[in-house]
């Protein structure tokens, strides 16, 4: 066991993992974190705590992670390369591990231009693949990136992100292979709407033997409205929303669009349970944390296994 | 070349508002080529300054000199004696030239008339594009001659981020994704293996002031007692 996290135990035991997401508030509102945490408790194996998502300043990921722990959740502590250099990153990694955080997701981060501080200096001292390698080196070799010894290495289950959709497509599985070589234990994918492309990518990963080394958690986001679907199709970089999804949402009564969105998500989850190479689902119910129990119930992933 | 952009006239006016007689010094190299600080731009700036100051009833006297290179002491020599007649200098060179000018004449205030923007290329007259951040650890051999530090908005070394969008960067659809281009060119050259290996964390020691002595010149500098 590399970290002893619940997520690691679930995946190692061969269970189909189910993780959620919690965006920290734009302030020091502890109650906001607790409120978002409540519907997730008992319904997911771990919860991603985002790190200044969309380059907007928020309560720090490690702090919100600790509040999540108090609420009975297991955090998946996110860290982006945009805001910290390698010294700050390694310091936070040690601190997070010391305080009981056991999963960590290594990301490049959205560009600062999108957020509320576009004037900021993006750091990007190292990239996401190098961050994965850094955490692995710290954990497995008890060494800092610079080579010095660590007094008490961090215990972390190392995560990364994968995007099966962005072009060039043939590069996508190689990018995953690089993260595997760097030492990633699990990856969570971009929100999936193009199932055909996802099937192809997972098959490539299986054929390359990557899924024997990394757990792939498929990213699922329920569409709340036609507007959201259109926005994701046109405005969100790296997102692939086929027209069929939009047509399907348009085909139901206005009041039933959100329900149809959940239905699509549940159908996807059912398919992922059977898909070779997929070890679980990462549910990104954006600002819809309270819907997670219903989605988990309808997707037949409850009760969550206890390991 | 080094590409610069002239500062707005208001900013330059504010810097020299307390001076009656200024010498505007142009530079004949990079900033002249990118149409920001050569002889012609010196003339334009002086005219703008004079008109503005005359209109506010506080006329300014200006002088104009354009040296071959402000980053070379040899060419700054021709200003010796000339600058004594002025209250302040305005430099239209890049940041390196401005600093060298200020170093040569430490008794007189030197003000920048340009913002030094980047190391870039000339796409078309009047259109320049950044190409190099002078990071000091060039990886262009690995990346088919496309710089991931400069051309990728996140300066990534191991391939495109999740935000790449049909060949464009997530920050702007007019900005090509550097890694998409790198992939495309390496594929054409049958050299994709280049980017399948993990590129380790970069050495960013360019953040400290750097000096270079080219091999073969150390002995000379030592003999001169300079370095």
TrEMBL record, chain A:
<keyword id="KW-0274">FAD</keyword>
<dbReference type="GO" id="GO:0005829">
    <property type="term" value="C:cytosol"/>
</dbReference>
<keyword id="KW-0560">Oxidoreductase</keyword>
<keyword id="KW-0285">Flavoprotein</keyword>
<protein>
    <recommendedName>
        <fullName>Methylenetetrahydrofolate reductase</fullName>
    </recommendedName>
</protein>
<dbReference type="GO" id="GO:0009086">
    <property type="term" value="P:methionine biosynthetic process"/>
</dbReference>
<dbReference type="InterPro" id="IPR003171">
    <property type="entry name" value="Mehydrof_redctse-like"/>
</dbReference>
<comment type="pathway">
    <text>One-carbon metabolism; tetrahydrofolate interconversion.</text>
</comment>
<dbReference type="GO" id="GO:0106312">
    <property type="term" value="F:methylenetetrahydrofolate reductase (NADH) activity"/>
</dbReference>
<dbReference type="GO" id="GO:0035999">
    <property type="term" value="P:tetrahydrofolate interconversion"/>
</dbReference>
<dbReference type="GO" id="GO:0071949">
    <property type="term" value="F:FAD binding"/>
</dbReference>
<dbReference type="InterPro" id="IPR029041">
    <property type="entry name" value="FAD-linked_oxidoreductase-like"/>
</dbReference>
<dbReference type="Pfam" id="PF02219">
    <property type="entry name" value="MTHFR"/>
</dbReference>
<comment type="pathway">
    <text>Amino-acid biosynthesis; L-methionine biosynthesis via de novo pathway.</text>
</comment>
<comment type="similarity">
    <text>Belongs to the methylenetetrahydrofolate reductase family.</text>
</comment>
UniProtKB/TrEMBL annotation, chain B:
<dbReference type="InterPro" id="IPR022026">
    <property type="entry name" value="DUF5981"/>
</dbReference>
<feature type="domain" description="Methylene-tetrahydrofolate reductase C-terminal-like">
    <location>
        <begin position="111"/>
        <end position="205"/>
    </location>
</feature>
<dbReference type="Pfam" id="PF12225">
    <property type="entry name" value="DUF5981"/>
</dbReference>
<keyword id="KW-0479">Metal-binding</keyword>
<protein>
    <submittedName>
        <fullName>Zinc-finger protein</fullName>
    </submittedName>
</protein>
<keyword id="KW-0862">Zinc</keyword>
<dbReference type="GO" id="GO:0008270">
    <property type="term" value="F:zinc ion binding"/>
</dbReference>
<keyword id="KW-0863">Zinc-finger</keyword>
């Amino acid at each position: 066991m590399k970290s002893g996290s619940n997520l690691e135990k679930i995946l190692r035991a061969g269970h189909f993992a189910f993780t959620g997401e919690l965006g920290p508030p734009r302030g020091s509102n502890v109650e906001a974190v607790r409120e978002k945490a409540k519907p997730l408790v008992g319904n997911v194996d771990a919860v991603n705590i985002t790190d200044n998502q969309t380059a907007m300043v928020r309560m720090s990921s490690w702090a919100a992670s600790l509040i999540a722990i108090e609420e009975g959740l297991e955090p998946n502590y996110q860290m982006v390369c945009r805001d910290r250099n390698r010294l700050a990153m390694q310091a936070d990694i040690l601190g997070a591990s010391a305080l009981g955080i056991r999963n960590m997701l290594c990301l490049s981060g959205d560009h600062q231009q999108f957020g509320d501080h576009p004037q900021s200096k993006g750091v990007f001292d190292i990239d996401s693949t190098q961050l994965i390698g850094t955490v692995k080196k710290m954990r497995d070799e008890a060494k800092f990136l610079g080579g010095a010894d660590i007094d008490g290495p961090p215990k972390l289950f190392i995560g990364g992100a994968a995007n099966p959709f962005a072009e060039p497509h043939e590069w996508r599985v190689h990018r995953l292979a690089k993260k595997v070589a760097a030492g990633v234990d699990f990856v969570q994918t971009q929100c999936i709407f193009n199932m055909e492309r996802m099937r192809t990518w997972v098959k490539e990963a299986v054929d390359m033997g990557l899924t024997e080394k990394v757990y792939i958690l498929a990213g699922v986001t329920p569409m709340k409205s036609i507007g959201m679907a259109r926005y994701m199709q046109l405005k969100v970089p790296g997102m692939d929303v086929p027209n069929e999804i939009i047509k399907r949402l348009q085909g139901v009564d206005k009041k039933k669009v959100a329900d149809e969105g959940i239905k699509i998500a549940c159908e996807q989850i059912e398919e992922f349970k059977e898909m070779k190479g997929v070890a679980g689902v990462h549910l990104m119910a954006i600002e819809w944390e309270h819907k997670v129990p219903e989605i988990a119930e309808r997707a037949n992933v409850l009760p969550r296994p206890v390991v | 070349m080094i590409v610069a952009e002239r500062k707005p006239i208001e900013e330059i006016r504010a810097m020299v508002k307390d001076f009656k007689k200024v010498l505007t010094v142009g530079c004949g190299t990079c900033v002249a080529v990118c149409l920001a600080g050569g002889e012609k731009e010196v003339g334009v700036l002086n005219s703008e300054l004079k008109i503005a100051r005359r209109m506010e009833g506080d006329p300014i006297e200006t002088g104009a000199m354009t040296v071959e290179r402000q980053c070379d002491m040899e060419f700054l020599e021709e200003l010796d004696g000339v600058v004594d007649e002025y209250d302040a200098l305005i430099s239209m060179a890049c940041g390196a030239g401005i600093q060298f000018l200020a170093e040569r004449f430490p008794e007189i205030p030197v003000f920048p008339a340009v913002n030094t923007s980047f190391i870039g290329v000339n796409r078309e007259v009047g259109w320049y594009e950044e190409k190099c951040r002078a990071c000091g650890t060039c990886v262009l051999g690995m990346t088919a001659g496309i710089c991931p530090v400069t051309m990728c908005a996140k300066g990534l070394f191991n391939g495109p981020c999740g935000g790449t969008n049909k060949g464009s960067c997530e920050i702007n659809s007019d900005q090509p994704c550097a890694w998409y281009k790198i992939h495309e060119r390496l594929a054409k050259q049958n050299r994709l293996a280049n980017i399948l290996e993990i590129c380790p964390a970069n050495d960013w020691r360019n953040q400290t002031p750097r000096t270079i002595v080219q091999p073969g010149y150390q002995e000379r500098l030592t003999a001169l007692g300079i370095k």
